[in-house]
Amino acid sequence: MVVILLGPPGVGKGTQAVRLADATRGEHISTGDLLRAARREGTELGQKAQGYMDAGELVPDDLILDLVRDHLTGVAAEASILFDGFPRTIAQANRLDAVLSDVGRQVDRVVLLQASNETLLKRLSGRRSCSECGAVFNIYFNDSQGDGICDRCGGPLLHRIDDEPDTVAHRLQVYEEQTAPLVAHYQAHAAGLVRVEAGRGTEEVFVDFRAAVG
Ligand code: AP5
Questions:
Q1: pTM of the predicted model, to two decimals?
Q2: Would you state the pLDDT for residue 214?
């Protein structure tokens, strides 16, 4: 099964994807996480992506497709795959179809998480991410036990540069212009699209998300 999780910045894609991958032992592929890992490791890709990410712009499609293709080579042919934050443009969606088709697979489900802008802004302003292991917390909704310290690995928790208010506003605009067209695209795709209201507690959202994946 190949699942795509769509939705605007801060709606909870990563939070829900980690839960589903834990519950199903599926492969969670977050292009945002892969890019942040590349930056931490100082790879050429990480250096190329840095300026785009910090400005709230999308990283060019060719770089993203190379990253996804490389990552997929290490994934077992029968593994369930959950894409989080990918695809983000119509061009990425079309190229994903081609990549999957080459290995006899296809997109099976597309789930759109949606919430009000007010909810997105509060979640992004409160998010704190571990700079070492990537674990995600929120000072309003699920804070870490230690003051600014990751509960999982003890690393320092940081507010992402792209979670600063001006950059968040730009990311929301980029989402509307470049990613929101994927909603109509997948409604017309064989996989179809299921909407889940994500402006609720994490557990409630997960129940509906899991049912949508089937
Ligand atoms: P990426 O990291 O993918 O950012 P995003 O899509 O903007 O999504 P976020 O990570 O901001 O939010 P999320 O929906 O995962 O929410 P989360 O679960 O963390 O991408 C970053 C950048 O990389 C992009 O801007 C771009 O430059 C580049 N990039 C990545 N993929 C790309 C691609 N395919 N093409 C081109 N460029 C790409 O939750 C947010 C907060 O809310 C957390 O604090 C969480 O604890 C909290 N929370 C979550 N759910 C709930 C809930 N139900 N109730 C209360 N709090 C909640």
A1: 0.96
A2: 87
